[in-house]
Amino acid sequence: MPISQALYTGVTGLSANADGMSVIANNIANANAKGFKRDRAEFEDMLSMDLQSGAGATQIGRGARLRNVRTIHSQGGLAVTDTLTDLAIQGQGFFVLSNPNTEVQESAGKFYSRVGSFMFDKDGYLADSAGGRVQGYSVNERGNLSTRLSDIRIETNSIPPKATQELKLDVNLDARVKAFEGGPKFNLMDPEASSHFNNTTTVFDSYGAAHQMTVFFERVQGDDGELVWNWHGAMDAKEVMEEAEEGASLVKVAEGTVIFDQAGTLKLETQSDVDSIAINFEGGAKLNQFIALDFGKSLEEGGKGVGSATSIAAKSITNFHQQDGYEAGNIKSLQIEMDGKVRGIYTNGLVRDLGAIALATFENQDGMMKAGRNQFYATIESGPPKIGMAQAGTRGSIFASSLEESNVDLAAEFVNMIVTQRGFQANSRSITTTDTMIEEIINLKR
């Protein structure tokens, strides 16, 4: 082996350490870049010379070279921000971006990033600062999430009103109450005195206007130990078209009976016709609005008494009441859940799904290529992306009003810088030393 070969071996060491220093410098330069993933330089030796000696075959290395620059996809810390659309991923996964303005359309125009610094553009699409639109699932006309990946566009239309069709009442009617002597006594002229308990609930007409509906309960005599209660639904006479009795301020709009067994469990519920149980509200709302009262699943309907009205020896009380109508509402604010669902909160109290943000994972995320702007694109080595909802499979969670910090450890980078510097220095010394040796050989002639 010529002694001059050592010079070239030293050069490979200088080149390898210079490349390593470039990787370290890039990490340090991006230490404060949101979502940046640090790189690690990986080297390998070059073995290309075999020598024959008395002891057998001998191998001599030709130096070192940069084998690979590997991106380390470890988790970065999460920093809290004051912007809702700043999103961070805790766990595995990448945001999926589609940028129609990009000249180079790698991987079908889809890019993948951990940087969730997004905003709504002028067209209502959730996008990054470069115009890349976030991919996810929109909501169809039935309010369900679509299964097709598309640009996320948030519709901020108002919600139309819905007329009340069902009123659920979960009440306990005191079994210790005695029935009125002489039979039922309920009277709209004095409903409180002629009943034993009442509950008032807000219901809505077809315009979304609110009205108060009061249900009065009256204990009546039952057979074979049954507890029987009549109920009467009444509304303000000024709010409905039906005429009230002279001197009465309320109009009866529905009535029925609830029967309980000796254990106080709902046995049977009925609803009798009062003007076909159709309410005609004043103000031009839709006529003949039907409102059904539901006291829970009775024994005859297969119920077991759970979540239904009861009549036991305890004070009469409303445990729960709910109706399915609501007034018109405008969107008031947004919230983004950990599973990526984007929900709108409306002025009428409703919360509706408006879309969902998708995440992508790869079998070999180390095989992805960098595309700049802290974005990646898929390659054959990475495998195709597996795209779906957050918190499904191995995909992580999404945190709103947060951004992922760089995973660069400055202390570790400075240590690597020192090691690399010393490696470069040592290789330069091997070159100067070899040069001295060559000089000694030349001096042999003197």
Q: Rg, please?
A: 38 Å
Tally the helices. 2
Largest sheet: 10 strands, antiparallel
Poorly predicted parts? none
Structural class: mainly beta
Beta-strand percent range: 35-45%
CATH architecture annotation of the largest domain: Sandwich
Helix fraction, binned, reads 10-25%
Query: What is the CATH T-level topology of the largest domain?
Result: Tick-borne Encephalitis virus Glycoprotein, domain 1
Average residue-wise pLDDT: 88
Within CATH, the superfamily of the largest domain carries the name: Flagellar hook protein FlgE
- N/C terminus separation: 24 Å
Number of strands: 29
Number of domains: 3
User: Could you name the CATH class of the largest domain?
Assistant: Mainly Beta
The coarse overall form would be: rod-shaped
Question: Could you explain how this protein is built, in words?
Answer:
The chain has 446 residues and is mainly β. The chain has helices spanning 5-29, 410-443; strands at residues 39-53, 56-71, 78-80, 86-90, 94-98, 110-113, 116-117, 119-120, 126-127, 133-138, 150-151, 166-172, 197-204, 210-220, 227-236, 250-260, 266-272, 278-279, 289-290, 292-294, 317-323, 331-336, 341-346, 351-361, 369-372, 375-377, 386-389, 397-400, 402-404. It is rod-shaped.
What would you say about this model in short?
This protein has 446 residues and is mainly β. It has 2 helices and 29 strands.
